Amino acid sequence: MLQKLEELKKIALEAIKNTEDEKSLRDLEIQYLGRKSELNGFAKNIASLSKEEKPEAGKQINLAKVAIENEIELKLAELEDKKMEALAIDEWIDVTAPSKKSQEGSRHPISSFIDEIISTFGRMGFSQAEGPEIESEWFNFTALNLDADHPAREMQDTFFVNDVKAKDNPDTEDNRDSGMVLRTQTSSVQIRHMMNSTPPIRIIAPGKVFRKDHDATHSPMFHQVEGLMVDEAVSLKNLKAVLLESLRELLGKPELKLRFRLSYFPFTEPSLEMDISFPMKGKPDYWLEVGGAGMVHPNVLQNGGVDTEKYNGFAFGLGIDRLVMIKYGVKDLRLFFENDLRFLKQF
Asked: Which of 74, 149, 186, 304 is most exposed, with minimal Cβ within 10 Å?
């Protein structure tokens, strides 16, 4: 048995030494070390040997196995070195050669438009404010004067987040507000800013918001900018002037007309819908809704810690994606989120 074992080891080592590629080496590994290999057969036959022969046979089998394994590792390293040498010859790079012209990326049209919004309102004295995208129900609903049974709180309209607790809910006595949602508007930023500031306040809050809508003009994730001005003796005239001048500049239409319609929002009183005059469908004055606005409801101001005896204010919300669609004449909102370079290179 020991003589046959020695012969097997010699044949295996010679075969491994002469192999020329990794696949053949792996085949030899299976042949000589695999579960059905002859070496494994020797190990199984130890039981048939005498008590005196078993120790020496077991020792020689292990030595043969180790020798074959070591030879395979050495051969594998040798083959890897040869592969790297071949790559160095066949795929070398001349680092002194002029580089190929690389494609330069560009800002996404929505990101660029948000920059324009920040710049335009910045010249009017509005600073940018930010807040979390995962928001407590108190900041997203209750502080904005939305009742507990308001339709916006329903599961079919809002994305509720499981296993996340409200960390900074000041209304600790109201257990209904312990949940968290993906914010449905950036109005929650207004509350956070008022709670940590004192009037006069002029802010805009651009950012992502989330609602369960998905079609040519709606997306589950979209962009919105909220504006807030709180000061003494703020009026609807101030609101109209700010919106008219900003929209004319952002859309590049100096003669743009703006129309207000009475509406209802829980967080403003009075509440207004905003339309702009936009040539469409063959009509020179086709009115298109672009957002909502109004004078901030006293309850909202109080929830933000503002003295309503001294201060009042206006707020507005504009759909950024809708404005970009209007500016560039894009009819399907989904095109902005498909990352098709043929579309994005137009901007």
From this structure: 149
C-alpha to C-alpha distance for 88 and 81, rounded to whole angstroms: 11
Cβ-Cβ contacts under 8 Å for 110 (sequence gap 6 or more) = 223, 320, 321, 324, 336
Any domain includes 315: yes
- List, in order, residues 6 or more apart from 18 with CB less than 8 Å away: none
Contact 223, 206 (CB under 8 A): yes
Let me know: does 137 contact 177? Beta carbons within 8 Å: yes
> Rounded to whole angstroms, how far apart are CA atoms 160 and 238?
36
Helix (H, G, I), strand (E, B) or coil at 52: coil
Decide: helix, strand or coil at residue 207. Answer: strand
Structural domain containing residue 49: 2-90
Tell me which of 43, 60, 90 is where a domain ends. 90
What's the CATH code of the domain at 153?
A: 3.30.930.10
131 and 40 co-located in one domain: no
- 150 and 205 share a domain? yes
Q: How would you label 261-290 residue by residue, b for 16+ Cβ within 10 Å and e otherwise? A: eeeebbbbeebbbbbbbbeeeeeeeeeeeb
Three-class SS state of 101: coil
- b/e for 140-166, b at 16 or more Cβ within 10 A? bbbbbbbeeeeebbeeeebbeeeeeeb
Residues 60 and 5 sit within 8 Å (Cβ to Cβ): yes
Residue pLDDT tens, the chain, 347 long: 677 778 888 888 888 889 988 888 888 888 888 878 887 777 777 777 777 777 887 788 888 888 888 998 998 899 888 888 888 787 777 778 887 777 777 889 999 999 999 999 999 999 999 999 999 989 999 999 987 766 666 655 788 887 666 555 454 444 445 688 999 999 999 999 999 999 999 999 999 999 877 665 567 888 999 999 999 999 999 999 999 999 999 999 898 889 999 999 999 999 999 998 876 666 667 788 889 999 999 999 999 999 999 999 999 999 999 899 888 888 888 888 888 888 888 88
